[in-house]
Amino acid sequence: MVYSRSFQTATELVPFCSSPFCVLPIDWLAQPSSAGIKNTRLTRLYEKLVYPVLEQRDACLDAARYVCRALDDQETLLHEQVNDIVNFSYNLRYLNDRLEFEDVGFRTEKQSHVFAIGQQVGSHPLVLATARAVVDDELDCYELFAGVEKPAKAAEFVRFAFHPLLDAAGKDERAKRYRPLLDLHKRYLFRLLLRRMFAFMEERGIRTVFAILPLHVKVFLEQTGIRLTGVPTAVPDASDKHAFMRQAFQKYWRPGAETSRQPALYTVDFRMSPLVRTVNGQGIVIDQE
């Protein structure tokens, strides 16, 4: 009798920054400014954000060079870039009237800290992803939701956004080829961004972090290894104070949809689940502890 033995070959795991996928040519990502954008103001924002990068010869995203930090108030040019990125992202994705424009990138009067992760591309400081931590006593979630218990110390993460190079990529055949690599970079960026924000909270003794998330962002975060816990007592506040915002950004707030399809409130765990992706048969570890 002949016995056959099957062997399972384990995929070798490589850290993302040591993999052949950590470098991504920027000209693969750039699209004509008019591609899918009918709003002239958004077109100008796209050109403002993208063209300075394209002017840098042979520019590449390089995960080994990504730097994440909180921005100082005096860094006006970086704050302007962050505001432009937030405005582009939220208006393009969520504004109900594609021909209108709402300034959602402005600095809030509440006590907030702006975080950005990016790299130097030639002479241009390029912000690739950004988010803000609101640490005011009156967080946005307390105004937009009822039934939220207020911890002694809490923060709220708001205004998550990627640079248009990452978030407005094309849909042609060439784009399909590099999309898996782009996905690696976006998830790596987000994990590094949140790790820096978590460290900032821990330094200040803040252990409770809230985030208001639409369903598709929740799915992205969970698939990126971010641990979220729903706040079941939180229900959308019925006051008229933010009615205009909900109507203007209907694609985000979905005021007429079932509650399960509307943005919900979550707490964000400071721990992250391990994240491994396989590209072309290569196992990639995304952001190790």
Provide an overview of this structure:
- This protein has 289 residues and is α+β, with helices and mostly antiparallel strands.
- The chain has eight helices and 14 strands.
- The strands form four sheets. Strands 4-5-6-8-9-12-10 form a seven-stranded mixed beta sheet.
- Helix 1 crosses helix 2.
- The relative contact order is 0.16.
- The N terminus is likely disordered.
Please summarize what this structure is:
The protein has 289 residues and is of the alpha+beta class. It is built from eight helices and 14 strands.
Biggest sheet strand order reads 4-5-6-8-9-12-10
Give the tally of β-strands. Answer: 14
Question: Which structural class best describes the helix and strand composition?
Answer: alpha+beta
Distance between the termini: 50 Å
The SSE string, one letter per element, is EEHEEHEEHEEHHEHEEHHEEE
**Residue share in β-strands:** 25-35%
Main sheet attributes: strand count, strand direction, barrel closure: 7 strands, mixed
Any low-confidence stretches, pLDDT <50, length ≥5? 1-10
> Number of helical segments?
8
Radius of gyration from the alpha-carbon trace, in angstroms: 20 Å
Mean pLDDT: 87
| Helix share, percent | 25-40%
Basic shape: globular
Give a quick set of tags describing it.
289 residues, alpha+beta, seven-stranded mixed sheet, three-stranded mixed sheet, 14 strands, 32% helix
Give the SSE map:
Blueprint: E1 13-15, E2 23-25, H1 40-54, E3 60-62, E4 67-70, H2 76-94, E5 112-121, E6 124-134, H3 140-144, E7 145-146, E8 154-162, H4 164-167, H5 173-203, E9 208-213, H6 215-223, E10 226-230, E11 235-236, H7 243-248, H8 250-253, E12 264-272, E13 276-279, E14 282-285
Helix pairs in contact: 1-2
